[in-house]
Amino acid sequence: MLRLTLYLVIGIALFLALKHVYTYLPEAVLRKMVRIWDKIFLSLTWVFAGVTVLALGFIIFHILSNGIPHLSPRLFAVNVTLGDVSMFPAIISTVLMVIIVLAISVPLGMFTAVFLVEYMRTGSWFVTLIRSAAEILAGIPSIVYGLFGMMFFRVFLGMGFSILSGSLTMSIMMLPLIIRTTEEALKSVPDTYREGSFALGAGKLRTVFRIILPNAMPGIFAGVILAIGRVVGESAALIFTAGTILQIPSSLFDSARTLTVHMWRLSSYGQYVNETYATAVVLLLVVLSLNAVSGVIARKFTKT
Amino acid sequence: MKMRKMSKYGMEFSMKIVFAACACVSIIAISLIAIFLFTGGLPAIFEIGIYEFFLGQRWAPGDRYPAVPAFGVLPMIVGSIYITLGALVIGVPIGLFTAIYLAYMCPHRIYVFVKPVVNLLAGIPSVVYGFFGMVVLVPMIRPFAREITGGGTGESIMAASILLGIMILPVVIGISESAIRAVPANYLEGALALGASKTRSVFCVIVPAAKSGIMAAVVLGVGRAVGETMAVNMVAGNQARMPTHLLRGVRSLTANIVMEMPYAYGLHRDALTATGVVLLLFILIINMLFVFLVRKGR
């Protein structure tokens, strides 16, 4: 490890020394070097952009080609026992969790953004405070949310391993995303709409609900779909809050594993590699289609 | 008439209060997170001893009499730092050059294809990344690990770094692309007018001008890499000892929590919470750096 660092330092020193030599070279050589340098850097941009695309392509291709042949009815069996490979209960739990998380975080986030954009002056201390709070929330790693959810919702509030404590944890996690996207959407509604509404005698509240929010809806919706993707893809925050029991939840206080957690459990068993591939296929398809829908909405929104 | 007006204003006022209350939820949430983590973790740090906790090299929470349990978190801190550095070595050059390509070099037809690809990379769940690393990267590294270090399964700093390098790409690309695009067009025009080629103008004028935005992208990438849990946990090997080799296993702070929390109790549990506190402090420092760099960029 130390030797590697040493090599790196020597390399950088050599490079810097070389830079000084340039000044003493004849102009013809310099021109040629510049041309070669140009070519190298230009092709590097192509190569690295290619690497990015290939990385995604390879991951998706690998998962799909290994997973699709193993998509069997057994994986969607309705009746399950503990330790089963069926993802049916996991899908139900995931859908349930997405619904609850959205029901909590979308109104909260939306109203926060409405307050920040429509009611407060930009740059007031309160706006700065909430915006930095949201920024910090966005940066906290999901495992820390998991710890917090475990200590607060599961133990302190006594919700135990349950969909509810998982959903509440996830709702806090989604807040910054919803706030930011709604804020952007609200800001993109032209001020003339507000002025027109006020001129017709509508109050602030009516203007917000009848004029501004409907016009900002596509932007908000794109954010909501991104949030759904995040909830579906989350695992670290859920292991300690919603738990990992594979069952169709009968109430909000039941423990349940979402599809992502289910895939993680399967992958850690070792003998279920094929089933894990198949679960990954379902997961990927959900996430990819959500991404596509969000992209389409966002594009439509920016065009009109 | 007067009544209606009153109730209308009452409605306006009460809804304003509701909006304000919703806005306060973020602040309440962040204070709750801070309170619960610190009250859970700090006493444990003091009980273990600040020096033993942060600089102790032995993490052995399960040791029973006559051995003494040890809660030194240094191996995990160093492990997280190594993995993150490795992710940067792989992710930043690829991300930066892709961002430059997207912003200046590529025709529109390719842009509309590559941009969604970058967004998709951000959408793939970390468990899927981790599983991919488990079945593809780790077996690929295994023979090298056996050859060079004489053992190991291939679960290593290398595997985690490559995987994280891919995972931070969308962050690095997204933010540095917008930073590069934010550089005024007359910089490029000026460089071109002085006779520099387009490649040279972009690399020697535009990119240096976007430096603070690009640094912000890197810092945010660091934040992602430090906080990533499941993918790292699945490919890094998770041995709680000081990292010995690039091709040998290591445990990150995040993996430490997620692996041991299910069966931890007592001081062990609090020590894991304290690990979370260390992680949170890392992230807060990184966040502050990010905000500072973004402000500087403006």
Number of helical regions of chain B: 13
Total domains of chain B:
1
Separate helix tally of chain A: 11
The chain pair with the largest interface is:
A-B, 85 and 86 residues
User: What is the SS-derived class of chain B?
Assistant: mainly alpha
Q: Any guess at the CATH architecture of chain A?
A: Orthogonal Bundle
**Mean pLDDT across every amino acid position of chain B:** 89
Describe the biggest sheet of chain A? none
Percent range for helical residues of chain A?
over 70%
The succession of helices and strands of chain A, N to C, reads: HHHHHHHHHHH
Give the terminus-to-terminus CA distance of chain A. 55 Å
- The tally of beta strands of chain B, per DSSP, is 2
Overall pLDDT of chain A:
88
The succession of helices and strands of chain B, N to C, reads HHEEHHHHHHHHHHH
The largest sheet of chain B is: 2 strands, antiparallel
**Shape of chain B, please?**
globular
Number of strands of chain A: 0
CATH architecture of chain B: Orthogonal Bundle
Residue windows where pLDDT falls under 50 for at least 5 positions of chain B: none
How do the helices and strands line up, and which of them pair or pack?
The complex is a heterodimer of chains A (304) and B (298).
Chain A: H1 2-21, H2 27-67, H3 88-119, H4 125-139, H5 142-156, H6 163-187, H7 191-199, H8 204-233, H9 236-239, H10 259-269, H11 273-303
Chain B: H1 2-48, H2 50-55, E1 59-60, E2 70-71, H3 74-105, H4 108-123, H5 126-149, H6 157-167, H7 169-181, H8 185-193, H9 198-209, H10 211-227, H11 230-235, H12 253-260, H13 266-297
Structure description:
- The complex is a heterodimer of chains A (304) and B (298).
- Chain A has 11 helices and no strands.
- Chain A is mainly α.
- The model of chain A has no long low-confidence stretch (mean pLDDT 88).
- By secondary structure, chain B is mostly helical.
- Chain B has a single domain, classed as Orthogonal Bundle (MetI-like fold).
- Chain B is built from 13 helices and 2 strands.
- In chain B, strands 1-2 form a two-stranded antiparallel ribbon.
- The longest helix of chain B is centred in the N-terminal third of the chain and has 47 residues, at 2-48.
- At the A-B interface, α2, α3, α4, α5 and α6 of A face α1, α3, α4, α5 and α9 of B.
